[in-house]
Specification:
The chain is 41% helix and 11% strand. By secondary structure, it is of the alpha/beta class. The strands form six sheets. It has a seven-stranded mixed sheet, sandwiched between helices. Strands 1-2 form a two-stranded antiparallel sheet. β5, α9 and β6 form a beta-alpha-beta unit. The longest helix has 21 residues. The chain is globular and about 75 Å long. It binds pyridoxal-5'-phosphate.
Length: 558
């Protein structure tokens, strides 16, 4: 059997999308006939040439020309097929949904029969459809409706089996997975635009420099900074905090000055300050939390005083999920003339941020926590401070003139970006931010809130489970312990079920010690998680909690 898509014209309009869809439905229905013996072959006739920039994967005309207004069509088509695929087929097929027609019921039936007979030829067609649909729906301004299953389908890595079970990724506070549009943006950069920035005087150098600066503008808008020059690209949160500690800390702290942190901080927001304090004679003060894991604001206020020079706060705790009232805390710190740094590693993917509304001097985050690559992150630093902060690392890019006697610096942010930067990763970061924004904050907030509520309720049904961190304002972190198993054992048992969670101290030991613990199990949520992920987790934890401890869960994972 062949797939003749001759009705499809090269300039794809909405009607053409429908036409492709209708054709696929026809093929799917035919493929489902019991008499149809042969394996479907790839397309029968040569395809129109690919559109510039985006080579087709295989087998189907380059749908990258589908206009943004066709996104709703693609969305509803994919939704119908995915729902069916999820209900009726093994896990591998969850990713391989086929886009067919705009009648969900007909589609659902056809698809469920079709996917069970799927061949490699059709597989590649569906993948291509999937890829383009993700691109179209990630286009800013597209009228995409938030659907977690559809979001999930944008993340290729999620569609695999671990130990024979469909992967459930609940380790999002450690790192997030990457949507196909991010992966594509990075590979497109390496396929077409790769060059070092600034130094070259040729076309690719100009393209790479534009890509780098466009990404900076994107982050500026994302954080609500006043100017792109206030955004410094670095490897991530840890490097950004170290930069501030090593520049502001070293230069402006004096013996007896006070740095205020909270007990909820990640080690990345403790250790650099300890190093700076040790060198300067400054002192660290720590804000406590209550039993829920909420900041004790009166204690914070009473720590503030004339000696307070710097307040460095996590925006949300990675171990308990608590969201801190950073606007209120920043305002209080400002009344005492302190500088304020906000560690946004755990918030940027969960809620909108505006550094000017917060009123902070520094804001840091890591790209890999927001669906972007590892190795890229940003430091927002207020313009006036950038001018007085000394450079951190020396080398290329950050200088204006060099002689053996003296060097003068570039203007910020280049002053803080020594050496060849991670341009492709910045391109990936921009793609990730655009992807997230295209989903829309109201829908993300609603979805994650519902998931957190559902997850909390389901876990609290587990006998003797102790949930650590029950702040009223939380991101999707569900730290817990059980009396009959260590967190590491639970983590390994869940891995056997295909469920990825973190178990340990989460690089936030003081926050767990506050609750008398060294470690917890920490499922953490993201946009692509679903209630069925939560059900898988809760059911597995229930089994672990109620089963006798007889078989140890095996050696540590590699
Ligand atoms: C709140 C918080 N701060 C800082 C970090 C460190 O981030 P990175 O390792 O990306 O530098 C993390 C990572 O988990 C975090 O959750």
């Amino acid at each position: 059997m062949t797939h003749d898509l001759s009705a499809v014209t090269p300039d794809f309009a909405e009607a053409d999308v429908r036409s492709i869809a209708a054709k696929l439905l026809q093929d799917a229905t035919a493929a489902a006939q019991p008499t149809m013996p042969d394996i479907p072959q790839p397309l029968a006739r040569p395809l129109p040439p690919p559109l510039p920039g985006i080579p087709p994967l295989s087998g189907i005309p380059p749908l990258s020309a589908v206009p943004a207004q066709a996104a709703p069509q693609l969305d509803s088509l994919r939704h119908a097929s995915e729902t069916t695929a999820l209900r009726t087929t093994p896990a591998r097929l969850q990713s391989e949904s086929i886009t067919t027609t705009h009648s969900p019921t007909t589609t659902a039936t056809a698809v469920s029969r079709f996917v069970s007979q799927m061949s490699p030829g059709l597989d590649s067609i569906t993948r291509e459809f999937h890829r383009v649909a993700a691109q179209v729906s990630a286009t800013p301004g597209s009228t995409r409706v938030f659907d977690p299953l559809q979001v999930r389908s944008d993340f290729p890595i999620l569609h695999q089996q671990i130990h024979g079970k469909p992967l459930v990724w609940l380790d999002n506070a450690a790192t997030t997975q990457k949507p196909r549009c991010v992966i594509d943006a990075i590979s497109r950069f390496y396929l077409e635009d790769n060059s070092n920035i600034h130094r070259g005087a040729h076309t690719l150098a100009a393209r790479a420099t534009d890509a780098w600066e466009n990404a900076r503008q994107c982050v500026q808008k994302f954080l609500g900074a006043a100017s792109p020059s206030e955004i410094i690209f670095l490897r991530g949160t840890t490097e950004a905090i170290n930069l501030v500690a090593q520049t502001v800390g070293r230069c402006f702290l004096r013996p007896g000055d006070e740095i205020i942190l909270t007990v909820l901080e990640h080690h990345a927001n403790i250790v650099p300050w300890q190093m700076a304090a040790r060198e300067t004679g400054a002192v660290i003060r720590v804000v406590p939390v209550d039993e829920r894991g909420e900041i004790q604001l009166d204690a914070f206020e009473s720590l503030l005083g004339p000696r307070t020079k710097l307040v460095s706060l996590t925006h949300a705790s990675n171990s308990l999920g608590t969201i801190l009232p950073v606007e209120q805390m920043t305002a209080a710190a400002k009344r005492h003339g302190a500088l304020v740094l906000i560690d946004g590693a755990q918030t940027v993917s969960h809620m909108p941020v505006n550094v000017q509304s917060i009123g902070c001097d520094f804001f840091v985050f890591s790209g890999h926590k927001i669906f972007a690559p590892t190795g890229i992150g940003a430091l927002y630093a207020r313009r006036e401070l950038q001018q007085v902060m000394p450079p951190w690392q020396g080398g290329g890019n950050m200088i204006r003139t060099v002689t053996f006697e003296e060097t003068t610096w570039s203007e910020p942010p280049a002053k803080f970006e020594a050496g060849t930067p991670s341009v492709a990763d910045a391109v990936g970061l921009q793609a990730a931010i655009e992807y997230l924004l295209a989903l829309g904050w109201p829908a993300i907030l609603r979805h994650e809130h519902e998931l957190l509520e559902y997850g909390t309720a389901r876990l609290l049904e587990v006998p003797r489970l102790r949930l650590i961190g029950q702040a009223r304002n939380k991101v999707g972190v569900l730290s817990f312990v059980l009396p009959n198993r260590t967190p590491e054992e639970i983590g390994r048992l869940l891995d056997r079920e295909g469920i990825a969670v973190r178990a340990g101290h989460h690089c936030a030991q003081p926050s767990l010690r506050r609750f008398g613990l060294d470690a917890t199990v920490r499922p953490s949520l993201a946009i692509y998680n679903t209630t069925s992920d939560i059900d898988r987790l809760a059911d597995a934890v229930h089994r672990i909690a109620t089963s006798p401890v007889k078989d140890p869960p095996g050696p540590p994972l590699k």
